[in-house]
Structures are given as structure tokens and as C-alpha cells.
Amino acid sequence: MIERYWTKIRRLGKHLFYLEGDPSMELQIYNALLIITIFSCLIFVIFNLVLSNIVLLWASLGAALFLLGCFYLLRVKNAFKTSFYLALSMSYLVFVFTFLNHEGIYGPTFYMLLLVHLIIHSIVKLKYHFFWSIVNGLFFLGLFYIGLYHDELITQSYTNKDAVFIDHGFTYIVAIIGFTLLINSVRQFYENQRSKVKEQTVAMAKTNSSLQKTSAQKDRIITIISHDLKNPLHSIIQTLKLVNSGMLDEEEVKLLNEELLNTTNRTFQMMENILEWSSFELKNETSQIKKILIKDLIDDTVEILKVIARQKKINIEVNYHKNPLVNIETDRLLLIFRNLVQNAIKFTPADGLIVISINSEEGFLILEVSDNGIGISPERLKNIFEQDIKSTYGTEQEKGTGMGLHFCNQSAHKLSRKLEVESTEGEGSTFKLVIPTGIH
Fold first, then answer.
1. Which of 70, 313, 370, 418 could disulfide-link to 350, CB 3.0 to 4.6 Å?
2. Residues of the chain whose pLDDT is less than 50?
3. H or E stretch including 430?
4. Distance from first CA to last CA of the chain, Å, rounded?
5. DSSP notation for 156-219
6. Domains in the chain, ordered, with CATH?
7. Is the pTM of this model over 0.70?
8. 386: Cα separation from own chain's centroid
9. Per its UniProt record, what InterPro entries does this chain match (predicted)?
10. 3-state DSSP call for residue 259?
């Protein structure tokens, strides 16, 4: 029972002392001190009733009611400035009244005057601090002058030393509570702001890291797109130049036009697949998984690559030892396949041979691309799959970025396997990809 009532009291206190949302420090301080002052005035009512000081009793009750009006303006009408300056004006009037009717310089008025000055400084803007310091200083000097040189205007209300002790002690304690609450509010607001800044800093760091990753991903995809489309488009351009050269007869032109149409259609289809794949990559999503026979998947790409190879007088031989059904990310597999074959074309001299072997064993697709090109040096072979953005040149000075094999290896890892390579400098290379078919 007691715990339930205590919970209700704590909930009410939290509702009174803490504003909802994200209030400013000034608003939070003013709200809390307003409540403290209202309760203090009500206690002064009881205190002056005990001391039989009827004048100060009514003054304390009037101040409490006036401050309740200010609290209503603040919490209900959201009129912070109006509420604050009304309370401030009333405070100085109460100080004058209390000073004249309660022992003057021998009473506790100046404790509260100092507290109010500190409250003002914690709420008003910095540019007004000097102004309110002058106001407070002049107000103090004026009251002190009256109390010292015109004591006939002061009402003597203390009847004994006990009343002096209780009045000063109680007022000082209220002032100390006000000081403590003010400092705690400022410190708490500072800690909250520091915590928010820390959270925002962490969030910004995460966002920055995410943006950097997205930017790197975008650059990677642009590199892949340019890498995969450059050779087919170059082949189309070379074919068009040959057609327009006037060196071919009508039958040859007709055959080239048919080949050009087929190559263009296949290149367009390949471009659509690459763009669709890149969209999934940018969104960090898994691209579409398709169930398809491996021959049906790579046939169009093989034809495009054969056209490119013929321009270097390179023959591509495809051996389907088996034609397994796969259920995997086909776009990612095609990315690896295109890069491996284009690499073989690039580093194989004229009249060379590239052999593509397709096989399957125990639920795994085995794809091999072999060439009799220039091979890879032992030093280069050690770091063949590292991210090494350096321009590389083929047998006919075809320029590349050096990123193709790095992308292939990354994609192989995403297909749950790695890429293997064997190479002898001057004799050729063999790249082998073994991945699960996805068929159970």
C-alpha cells in the first residue's frame, strides 16, 4: 500500500518537475524553481501563521497564488516569457514589501534576493546579464540605504531570538535548496546534452562509415560495369568500322550485320543483368536466385566473348562434361565467369586458345577457364586476388584496372566458395571455381 502511494507521488513529482519532450535548460530550471517557490510560499504561510504575522501571511498566500498563475501560463498556455517576467516583477515587489514589513536589513530578504539574481542569470540570455546585475545591485543598495538611514519605515516583527533563528534558518535553507536545485539542473542538463552529443557523434560516425562503404561499393560497381561492358562495346565498334570500311563484299557485310545484331542484343541483355545486379548490391540485398541449367545460363555470354576473342584471333572452346542444374545467384556467377574469360582473352596472344570446362560433382559446380597466354609471375601470383588498383596491360596493350580478379574472388566468397588459380609464367593460367549448385 505504502509503495503504491509512493510510486504515485514519484510519478506526480516527475510530471511536475520535468517537462515532456526536449525542453531547453532555461525552461526546465524555471519550471522546477517555480514549483519550489510555490511550496516555499505555502510553508511561509504556515510559518507566519505560527508567528502571528498576519501581514506576511497574506503576502505569502498572495505570492503563492500569483505564482500558480505563472505556472498555469507556463505549463498550459506555453507562455514562458510572459510567465517568467511576471514572476520576476512580482518577486521584486515582494522583496520590497517583505523588507519593509519584516525587519529590513536584519531580516532574511537578502538571501532570497541573491537566489533570484542567480536564477535570472541562469535563464536570461548572456547579453542581458550585465543589465540584471546592475538592477539587482541598485535594488540591494536602495533597500539597504532605506533600512540603514530610514529605519522608521521598517516594521519590527521579531518578538524574540527564537523567531530570529527560525526565520533566518528556514529562509537560508530554502535559499540553499534553490541554489542546489539550480546547480543540479544545470549539471543534469549539461550531462544530458553531452550524452546526446556523444550519441550523435557515434551515429554520425556510423553514418559516415556507411556512406564510405556505399561510396566504395558504388565505385566498385561502376568499375565492374565498365569492365564488363567495355570489351563487348569495343567489339561492336570494331565490327561497325569494318562494315563501313568498304573492304567487304555484300555477302560478308550481311554476315557481319547478323553477327553485329546478335552481339548487340546479347550485350544489351548482359547490360540489363549487370544493372539489375548492381541495384541489389547498392541496397545490400541478395540478388535473385534462379534455377537454371548452366548451359542455358552462360550460352549468350559465351557467344559475346567469342566475338571479342575472334578480334584477337583467339579461339574459345567450351566443354560441357556435364550440364548441371543450379539454383544460385546467377548474376554473381556470370560476373565471375565474364571476368575470368575476359581476363584470359586479355592476356592470351593472337592465335591462342581458351578452354572453358563445365562439370559437376557431389552437388558442386566446377567451372574452369584455362588459357595458353603469358601466365602470371610467382610474385604476382601471391597477391593475385588482393585489392590492387593498378593499370594492367594485355598482349595488345589492352588497359585494365587490376580489380577484376579481386571482384571475382569477393563474389566467389559470397557464393560460399573461393577461387583457385594455377599459373606458369610464359605457358598460361587456369582459374577454377567450385561452388554449391544449390540443388538438394
1. 313
2. 389
3. strand 428-436
4. 64
5. ----SHHHHHHHHHHHHHHHHHHHHHHHHHHHHHHHHHHHHHHHHHHHHHHHHHHHHHHHHHHH
6. 2-159 (no CATH), 209-436 (3.30.565.10)
7. no
8. 30
9. HATPase_C_sf, HATPase_dom, His_kinase_dom, HisK_dim/P_dom, HisK_dim/P_sf, Sig_transdc_His_kin-like_C
10. helix
